[in-house]
Amino acid sequence: MSTYTDRIQPTDSGIATYLENLLASKYQIPTFQRDVVWEKENVKKLWDSIYKFYPLGSILIWKTSTKLESHREIGGIKLADNFSSNEYQYILDGQQRTTALLMSIHGGKIADKENFDPTLYIDLTIEFTDTTDDISYKKRFLFWDEIDDKGGQLNLNIERYKRYKQGLIVKLKDIKSDYDTIEDRLLEIENKEHKNLYKKQLKRVRQIFDNYRISFIELRGIEVAEVCQIFERINQAGKPLYIFDIVVAKTFRSEDKKNNIPGFYLRELINNFRESIASSQYASVDDWTLLQMLAVVVKLEFPDAGIQNITDKYLNNLKTEHIEAVWSDFKTAIAKTFNFFDNCLHIKGPKLIPYRYLYLTITAYFYRNIKPNYIFLEKYFWYYCFHNEDLLSNTTHLWQHIEFLNQQKTTNTYSFNQFKIDINNLKKSFYSSRGRLSRAILSLYANHEPKDWAKPHQYVLSDVYYLLTDKPNLHHIFPVNFIKESGIASQIESDSLMNIAYLSQITNLKIRDKNPLDYLKEYDQPGLEEVLRSHLIPTIILEWSRADALPEHALTIFIEERVSLLLETLRLKLDGIEFNVFDMANRTDNIGGSLLRKS
């Protein structure tokens, strides 16, 4: 039985032994590791630290029985891939150092540097004088392009090339594997003082291979969710590791033509799907959400697959065969989900979806559903997005929703409880990229396909519009500065989403801080009433503009009118559902409608 003391174990290994074990696949570098950045200066500094017997920092190894997709080569150096083991050893931290060590001794190829040879040489004529010397390493450790007499620094390279031909500049690999031959060549040097210096330098490098120890920290009994957190914390400046990367690595399968077994690569499937919907803003939905959508579908199809929830612990249980079985219908369900948001609800981008879990529940509804009920689905969306209580904020809610949607899908029966909404919450709602009600209100505005005030024939929520910004281009109907200068309302009323409308950037800039009575006159032409209605803006403000007079408490009146318009709109969308409107500020209720039951 493992204990907490077994989870973290320090150990060490010689450089040569470590690299031999790596080539023999006793260690693996998982594919979720960052791309190697090969900098000559950094590699030289690495070897200078080793040369001075400085510590390199520990390499973090995760020991587990889980098999992940691993790199089959490092810089062109082939690694054994036909292997299996009861325990795998994955390098979680130390890939850069490991790659630098391996390629500086065994050579290879660097991406985007086709003609560069990463094999490292040492110049035995560069005397070691002081461990604090931080300059001579640049001359001591050399790459071939710094030695070759056809290199750029012609005169300098000629002298180095001569020393190379004399056996005074040698490969680190040759010192490791053919020490005696190199030493014999040094014996031919006549100058005794120089000979002793070069032999001393040579011996120091051999001592590195014989005595320098690389430190390891081995992790055992670590769950995949913990690996993600550990990886992220030790790579704070780099790319964090997500459960998606782990699942991609775990479910990877190489093609086996001999036994007619196709390859499987989840990342490629996801990327291909994204390309197929590239014109939609929903192609940007993150990998984690897509993975959770996939897990929900796998759970529906395979109840005993071990996907009890959508947390990292259970996402780790996704298996290749289960993903393969659902993938085709899953793709169709996702596409229908995104199309529902985009073209049925006219919500043109993922930034406005009130609940992230809606991706999961609606995908579950569309999965293998040949006759989806879009009227029901729209009621479902608006009911839960605007309900006064957060009814889709945790995984318990999630599975309840999926069960509810599945009932309608399989039996075509459903019923909604009383819908509740607080007028005061609508009045005091303000823009928040994470606020559920905020996004619900903006989604409702978008749903009516608002048109541009200056160009009534043109919709403002174009694809280009959403590509230019990561949040809606919002305009205060009563501009903030105008409110401050006139003193007609409080800051809360000023920032309320009831005082917000979508506008094109050009129109927004043109209006700026003008009195609404003035700027509306500029756009008052036939059809403006219809344009305002497309924004769910009460036309009473146009009446004020035509009369050239704002009443006392104009913004308060306007907000009351717009709240009423939103409620009227929601009543129509939730037709047949018992509708309870109340105002917590005034403790009043207004119940109307009846419980919706259909079959």
Straight-line distance between termini: 56 Å
Number of helices: 28
> How many beta-strand elements?
16
Question: DSSP strand (E) fraction?
Answer: 5-15%
Strands side by side in the biggest sheet: 1-9-2-5
Share of helix among residues?
Answer: 40-55%
Classify the oligomer.
single chain
Structural class designation: alpha+beta
Low-pLDDT residue intervals, each spanning 5 or more residues: 463-469, 593-599
Q: Can you summarize the main beta sheet?
A: 4 strands, mixed
Please tell me what the overall shape is.
Answer: elongated
The gyration radius over C-alpha positions equals 34 Å
Q: Write down the overall mean pLDDT.
A: 86
Describe this structure in words.
- With 599 residues, the chain is α+β, with helices and mostly antiparallel strands.
- Helix content is 48%, strand content 11%.
- The protein has 28 helices and 16 strands.
- The strands form six sheets. Strands 1-9-2-5 form a four-stranded mixed β-sheet. The chain has a three-stranded antiparallel β-sheet with strand order 7-6-8. Strands 11-14-15 form a three-stranded mixed β-sheet.
- Strand 14 and strand 15 (588-592) form a beta hairpin.
- Mean pLDDT is 86; it is low at 463-469 and 593-599.
Provide a short characterization of the protein structure.
With 599 residues, the protein is α+β, with helices and mostly antiparallel strands. The protein has 28 helices and 16 strands. Strand 3 (73-74) and strand 4 (77-78) form a beta hairpin.
List the helices and strands and how they pair.
Blueprint: H1 4-7, E1 8-14, H2 15-23, H3 40-51, E2 59-64, E3 73-74, E4 77-78, E5 88-93, H4 95-106, E6 120-123, H5 137-140, E7 141-143, H6 154-165, E8 169-171, H7 172-177, H8 179-187, H9 192-211, E9 213-219, H10 224-234, H11 243-251, H12 266-276, H13 287-301, H14 312-315, H15 320-344, H16 357-366, H17 374-386, H18 395-411, E10 414-415, E11 419-422, H19 423-428, H20 436-447, H21 463-467, E12 474-476, H22 480-486, H23 491-495, E13 500-502, H24 505-511, H25 516-523, H26 528-534, H27 540-547, H28 554-573, E14 579-583, E15 588-592, E16 597-598
Parallel strand pairs: 2-9, 11-14
Antiparallel strand pairs: 1-9, 2-5, 3-4, 6-7, 6-8, 10-16, 12-13, 14-15
